[in-house]
Amino acid sequence: MELLINNGTIVNANNTSVANVLCRDNKIVGIGDLSTANTSVDRIIDATDCYVIPGGIDPHVHMHLPSSAGFSSDDFYSGSKAALFGGTTSIIDFVTPRKGESLQDAILKRTKESQNCLTNYSFHVSPIEWRDTIENEIDNCISKGLRSFKVYMAYKDTIGLDDEVLLKVMKTVGNAGGMVTVHCELGDEIEILRNKFASVNCLIPEFHSLSRPSEVEAKAVEKAINFAKEAQCPIYIVHVSTKESLVYIREAQKNGQKVYAETCPQYLLLDDSKYIGDFENTGPFVMSPPLRKKEDIDALWEAVSDGTIQTVGTDHCPFNFKQKETGRDDFRKIPNGAGGVENRLALLYTYGVLKDKISLNQFVDLTSTNVAKIFGLYPEKGIIEVGSDADLVIWNPKIENIISASNHHQNCDINIYEGIKTIGSPRFVIQSGRVVVENGLMISTPSKGQLLVRR
Ligand SMILES: [Zn+2]
């Protein structure tokens, strides 16, 4: 199968050029003036006036996540389908064992749940407790290409780690040559605030936000960075949402420590005024960390622009309104999370590139290249060059859309970006050398995504 993409503007993280791209089966085999190649190709796409960018890689999604209100509403099939419509061809989800369960057993189970994933996929694996065998379990993960380990400083009654275990996990992963990704919020402090609000009957969603203030995130970021330094372990801080966190991240990076940071479109675009109002309008925005203030938004854009933050993931974890409603009378029962895997590229293009906050090359870096580099997928993914995988998006910078739950492909009756206008959208999405989305339609059922082996 040969596919030729003509006259597009190829945008990589560090260069832009007009050239033709030839894909054979699942690889890019030629870039340049390929007019002589035209004879044998199966399909020619004219990409004039479009950008040709590496397929998006979302480093942070939760498909089919169990919660007290049932599973998150996108499973691997529906969520990955939505991802493809939005120009994302690879996702990294999570393996979260139950107490007592080995990482390997949990990986097996999660691999079964992800059988119908349409995008390529990998997992961050969560050690949720310490035991004698954990060192071997972590080594085993790394030998299988699963080299990032997610730890939670919040949610200590279920999956969160106390300080002693956190440090031990970082030392173990650091020794083994892996990376720790960290959810930074101080669980104990949050618990105190939640109980305090509940005891005086303050139970509307606004108190979700007030029980997780900025400093609780920033202090956790500071602690995680210090632990990582002691453990000599690279860390990746997920969903950074506050300007105070950025101070610690910048400082560590300046000192040469391997500290990477991710933020999400919701923290770049929405603020905590979403928590004022009735439950119908506030419940959907309950997520952790919560939405912050305008000055945090400004600081995050600055950090995205100056390279302090390397990636934009979504933390995609949608729940239907009925599920959110289980916490109508008590914010502590609202399942945390919101969808966005489909909207990431269009939002970042519209409100980043078109608003002159980031360049087109940075857009590619934040949504694909840096993710591939940090998580061991580069240069197969994250760049358009000869030898790389043929996961590509042909981006039409002119297509306008109004985001809505009524027309998105995510399996959810809520979209937190409802009514927001975007400009720019995939005209073609190509995965493993095959066109899967064309002009807003899925033209063929994509072949199953590949479980990615990371180096
Ligand atoms: Zn998450």
Task: Provide the structure class.
Answer: alpha/beta
Helix content: 25-40%
CATH homologous superfamily placement: Metal-dependent hydrolases
Domain unit count: 1
Quick one: overall form? globular
The small molecules bound here are:
zinc ion
Q: Would you identify the CATH architecture?
A: Alpha-Beta Barrel
Share in β-strands: 15-25%
Would you report the number of β strands? 17
Please give the largest β-sheet: 9 strands, mixed
Number of helical segments with 4 or more residues: 14
**Which CATH class is shown?**
Alpha Beta
CATH topology: TIM Barrel
Poorly predicted residue ranges:
none
Cα-atom Rg, whole angstroms? 21 Å
Mean pLDDT, all residues: 96
Description:
By secondary structure, the chain is of the alpha/beta class. 32% of the residues lie in helices and 22% in strands. It has one domain (56-374): TIM Barrel (Alpha-Beta Barrel), CATH 3.20.20. It has helices at residues 76-85, 103-113, 134-143, 163-176, 187-199, 206-210, 214-231, 243-254, 265-269, 279-282, 294-306, 321-324, 344-353, 360-374; strands at residues 2-11, 16-24, 27-32, 43-46, 51-54, 56-58, 88-95, 120-125, 148-152, 179-183, 235-237, 259-263, 311-312, 392-402, 421-431, 434-438, 441-442. α3 crosses α4 (163-176), α4 packs across α7 and α7 packs parallel to α8 (243-254). Zinc ion binds at residues 60, 62, 315.
